[in-house]
Write a sequence for this structure.
């Protein structure tokens, strides 16, 4: 686990346990980084993740505050997020279709393990781990496509894709939907049904964008 993710999980647990109450301002970066024994750079990355997930809110000129759940800032869904979702919609359904043709049943065990971890993270409301699981799932599909360039694109845009995957997770009442959509994708890939895999991935990306409040033009 990267240091920023470790810091994000630590802060998430403090928020969920009530150490930091809703509406409370976090200590300044220097003080908080010192308390956690981490660099300010790692802390800034962690705070960015938690803002995306709706745990924190940044108020310019005032500081960073613990958000009331459901207070996710829709303004975070920027043009960059829209373009990232559009790119994913162009690439990922084709990757899923290729994975269905080239991997089939041999991918079943890995996908089952990834889905079990993803569901466990969602049920524990551990959105940091859930976001990591989600990214791993989509990168595995790119790898199973058998196209090295597709896999390279998935990894080279990991930061942007990972952020776009965190937006929908901020919609906590609908968390389990992502797991269920993954299940349809897995069934199609493992069953060797390329057209179903393509359709399932398209549906998943459209639904994820809708949960995140991201509107993008479908090619």
């Amino acid at each position: 686990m990267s240091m920023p993710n470790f810091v994000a999980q630590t802060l998430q647990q403090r928020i969920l346990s009530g150490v930091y109450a809703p509406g409370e301002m976090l200590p300044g970066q220097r003080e908080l980084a010192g308390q956690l024994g981490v660099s300010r750079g790692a802390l800034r990355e962690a705070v960015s993740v938690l803002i995306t997930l709706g745990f924190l809110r940044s108020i310019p000129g005032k500081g960073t505050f613990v958000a009331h759940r459901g207070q996710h800032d829709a303004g975070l869904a920027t043009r960059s997020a829209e373009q990232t979702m559009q790119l994913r919609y162009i690439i990922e359904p084709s990757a899923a279709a290729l994975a269905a043709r080239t991997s089939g049943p041999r991918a079943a065990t890995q996908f089952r393990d990834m889905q079990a971890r993803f569901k466990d993270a969602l049920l524990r409301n551990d959105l940091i781990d859930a976001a990591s699981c989600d990214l791993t799932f989509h990168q595995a599909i790119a790898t199973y496509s058998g196209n090295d360039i597709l896999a390279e694109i998935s990894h080279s845009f990991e930061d942007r894709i990972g952020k776009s995957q965190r937006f929908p997770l901020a919609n906590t009442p609908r968390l389990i939907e992502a797991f269920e959509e993954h299940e349809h994708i897995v069934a199609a890939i493992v069953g060797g049904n390329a057209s179903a895999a393509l359709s399932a991935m398209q549906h998943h990306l459209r639904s994820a964008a809708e949960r995140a409040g991201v509107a993008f033009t479908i090619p």
Q: What stands out?
A: Strands lie at 56-59, 63-66.
